[in-house]
Design a protein that fits this description.
By secondary structure, the chain is of the alpha/beta class. The chain is 53% helix and 11% strand. The chain contains 25 helices and 12 strands. The protein has helices spanning 3-11, 20-27, 31-45, 67-78, 86-98, 106-113, 117-131, 152-163, 173-186, 192-210, 226-243, 249-261, 265-271, 279-296, 304-322, 332-338, 340-357, 363-382, 397-411, 462-473, 498-511, 519-529, 585-596, 599-607, 611-618, and strands spanning 50-55, 59-64, 137-141, 145-149, 387-392, 415-421, 438-441, 453-455, 489-493, 538-539, 552-563, 568-576.
Amino acid sequence: MDANLYEILTRLSENEFKTSRDLSKELSISDKTFRNRIKEINEMIEKYGATIISKKHYGYLLEIKNHQLFDKLIEESKEINFPNTTDERKKFILKTLLNEENFVKIDYLSEELYISRNTISNILKKIENDLAIYNLEIERRPNYGVRIVGSELDKRICIINNYSDEINIRKYEQLIKSIVEENIKNGISMSEISFDYFMKYIIVSINRISKNHRILAPYQNEKFSDTLKNITREYINIIENMFSIAFCRKESDAFMLQFVSVLPSDSYIKFAPNFVITNRINNLVLKMLDIINSTLRIDFSDDLDLILSLSKHLVLMDIRMKYDIFIKNPLLDELKREYSLSYTIALTGSIILESYYNKRLPEEEIGLIAIIFALSLEQKNEHKRKKNIILVCESGLRSSNLLKLKCKRNFGDFLGNIYECSVEDIKKFDFEKNNIDYIFTTTHLNMKFTIPILEINLFPRKEDIYRYRKQLEESVSESWLKYFSRELFIPNLDLDKKEDIIKEMCNCAKKNNLTSDNFLESVLKREKMGKTDLENLVAIPHPYEMMSESSFVIVATLKRPILWESRRVQVIFLISIGNEKNKNLEEFYDKISNVFFDENRINYLINNSSYEALLEILH
């Protein structure tokens, strides 16, 4: 049974009459459409031992004479996947419009989905927003209906990313096998995600060409090697022979673009005459690293491996960005959770790329860049700077030397330089010049220091050694919390505009003597440059440049979510990195990024809007 008819049938009752007016209202369809559907259902269910009784002024009643037969019909009908949710309806309408070159009437969509014209119009607005990233639009014409307009290549990419999961892969097993063999023959090693996208592009192209939906725009701007052209021609020959279709020149050019866009850079280097990283690409990379350093105070400028890896990546990303080719990554959410710091760094660097290409960078591309930064950070962590300490011992030089030997023996893998000092001399010691992380002392010090002090025993027991080692291992685990304070937490802010919220938070910083008068201007300037709204109802505004002596974070929760830029936001972290010497910024960003991408922690703060709740989610 048709899914539309099944929904009407499930709303009928055996015990009481229901009017067509009430039922059609429930289903958001016209009374006339409802009565026509009832006739169809009656004809169908008679052979299953049931009938619909119609009684004037009363409505309709379901009468079942053979429950066994009727139950069989119901069970069979349950297997039909009828689009009931907004997302399912969006998918149905999008698929219908993409498969039609001509206009589709709103009434047709309304009757197919059993929803009102107004509901269809609202869904079309949502679809229109989604289509923008594919350079596609919805054209509306009175008395004709609606249709999607744009290039055929953009339509195919839209299909791949929205409903290619409906493709019956078994039908194309031989094709997949042939493409794999061709990859092996040419020494091409695509990632699983890239190969999946490439195969979907081929299958969608076969179906579109078979229905005479052909690529008409030329794609000849890119200069590819003869080797690459010959390889793609071999793939095209396989497809043409297997499915009896023909690729015109424009189809072949578009196919080559898709092929190159999914190649790993190593394969591209092998087939290209020269893999040239132009000054244009190199400048983009350097600008990315510059804005990351100025915004986050994390400096990658001396990491040659990272610079080369980013440059290689951007050469092929450049092609994807020019032609709006983006490959959905099913592991993106997991990547954000596991490598949240790297994703935050990539997100910051993406401002430069969005400004250059004058379009939003797809999250998938940001995710690929994040992986490159993750590898760099992992290598940095392997060579993490050991901690420099100063030993203060009141028992004289011999005792001090003994303590130094014990420290080397028990904590040598954590320690760098070890300095010795008396209680008197420590007053003159240059902590900043010697980059001291800890003071180890056998006596109580009655002076104020800006670094942690660890009071230790001259003859430590096993449990003492374990405690000291643990403290060194976790030496900065809590230090990043100093950026948050009760005075800088604003609960349940009752504002609806992004600019007003930022102004209120900047005023909070000013009241606490943390910033200059230009702080608000700098934050708003940064907002204009690119997105600061993340998922999970979080936004992270920050100044365009360093604007404060000390680092701090102002946190605000809103009474209700607002549209920030492209996402709804209810929790705002306004981050300002100061001019003081920060030793733990990477850990700060690592910890805070974990909070940004943790939906449960953010929801807890929204539901328990207090400074205490903030501290809970930060730990």
